[in-house]
């Protein structure tokens, strides 16, 4: 066999091996259209009622944990706190004096100067003063909590997605809290897609899936697989929700387009 013949044979063998390897690779996943959104926006409100005096944020704004978002008129609440603080100080002095009176009564009783009845009265007066102070302290704590509720603060670092109240608006939260704004964690997103029964046949919860958004690929987790509304007598489609964490610098928008790689050919049957 000549050198040229041996080279041709070797080349044919290598090509056959390469083609055999390609045939062993499974078919690539099909891409289905999806819609982006924040994973779990928080709807914020407050148990306090009153007039909105400040809306410090707007949709799309990034906020830090503890940052003021909305303020209600808190003048009456502050006045109540000051009044109860003054009452608490007064009752504290009364309690201290009642304690001293009780100690003096015990000394006099031991010297048989006063009767057991008088000692008991002093003891009751001291206990009553202690109880009055405790009640006032509880009222003060409640008033301070109510005052704190007049200011809505960000519970997490996030981004404002909606503001549902305006300055000057009155909110009544005595029976049911009024939604005031929505705050989302920009580190957690979801892609939602509607799939046919054939498309979801190979899917399972917690399955990793690849998402392509703004030209970048992310690996997410299938967190929801629920039937969605369909036309009468039509196969019941399902909505799939894939949670993923994009790059901090990714320019994603709620409602934006994305693609989800579905295992198999992805055909709607």
From TrEMBL:
Keywords: Signal
Keyword NADP: no
A GO MF label: efflux transmembrane transporter activity
One Pfam family from the record: BSH_CzcB
InterPro entries: BSH_CzcB-like, RND_pump_MFP
UniProt signal peptide: 1-29
Keyword Coiled coil: no
Cellular component aspect of the GO annotation: efflux pump complex
CzcB-like barrel-sandwich hybrid domain segment(s): 46-174
Similarity annotation: Belongs to the membrane fusion protein (MFP) (TC 8.A.1) family.
Protein's UniProt name: CzcB-like barrel-sandwich hybrid domain-containing protein
Species annotation: Acidihalobacter yilgarnensis
């Amino acid at each position: 066999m000549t050198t040229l013949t041996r080279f041709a044979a070797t080349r044919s063998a290598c090509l056959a091996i390469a083609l055999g390897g390609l045939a062993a690779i499974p078919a690539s996943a099909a891409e289905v259209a999806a819609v982006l959104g924040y994973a779990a926006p928080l709807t914020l409100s407050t148990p306090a009622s009153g007039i909105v005096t400040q809306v410090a944020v707007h949709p799309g704004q990034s906020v830090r944990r503890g940052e003021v978002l909305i303020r209600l008129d808190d003048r009456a609440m502050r006045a109540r706190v000051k009044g109860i603080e003054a009452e608490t100080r007064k009752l504290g002095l009364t309690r201290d004096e009642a304690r001293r009176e009780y100690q003096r009564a015990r000394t006099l009783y031991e010297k048989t100067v006063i009767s057991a009845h008088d000692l008991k009265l002093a003891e009751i007066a001291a206990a009553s003063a202690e109880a009055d102070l405790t009640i006032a302290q509880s009222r003060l704590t409640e008033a301070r909590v109510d005052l704190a509720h007049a200011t809505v603060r960000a519970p997490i670092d996030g981004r404002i997605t909606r503001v549902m109240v305006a300055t000057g608006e009155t909110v009544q939260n005595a029976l049911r809290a009024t939604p005031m704004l929505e705050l989302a964690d920009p580190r957690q997103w979801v892609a939602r897609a509607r799939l046919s029964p054939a498309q979801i046949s190979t899917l399972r919860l917690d399955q990793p899936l690849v998402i392509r958004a703004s030209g970048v690929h992310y690996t997410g987790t299938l967190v929801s697989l629920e039937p969605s509304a369909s036309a009468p007598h039509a196969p019941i489609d399902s909505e799939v929700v894939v949670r993923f964490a994009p790059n901090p610098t990714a320019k994603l928008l709620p409602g934006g387009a994305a693609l989800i790689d579905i295992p198999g050919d992805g055909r709607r049957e």
